[in-house]
Amino acid sequence: MDESSGCSLKDYVDRLFKEQQVKGDLAAAHCADLLAAEQRAVEAALGQIDHRIEATKILVSERVDAVRREATVLLAASEKAISKSEGASERRFDSVNEFRKQLSDQAIHFMPREVAESKIDDLRRNADTRMDELRAQMADLQRRIDQSAGESAGSARSISYMLAGVGSLLALVAFAAQFWLQG
Fold this sequence. Notes:
Layout: H1 3-93, H2 100-109, H3 113-182
Helix pairs in contact: 1-3
């Protein structure tokens, strides 16, 4: 073997090494682009989750306010009805004996205080039950939001691990190719 063929073999091996190095650089750049795209996708998904959380908070707040308003209106109406009923009863009992029979007839048709209080208690229990249901729904929504956030974080980690594995595999292939070309 003369010096010229040795030199051309060296040039050939150098050229092959440079080509492999360029291919490796291109593959690394492609992996970096894929990682950046995945990161943008994860950030977009997190933005959507944040938006959904805020929308859910607003919706739950509006529903709680509506239930409170409804309970307040019902309670006020009940108290007003009880107040009117009590006032009318007092005026009737203060009237003269000639209206006594009429008052007795009316007293039979009026709602007894115990029944009204029972109904008010029922309304309060229903309102409390509804509030408990809303609290349970809010807790469930929070649990789902937390679970969704955890799943997003797990997906991001999995993608990172896969990209690291691909990078390691490419490095191993480049090393083996270099070793093979030298050997």
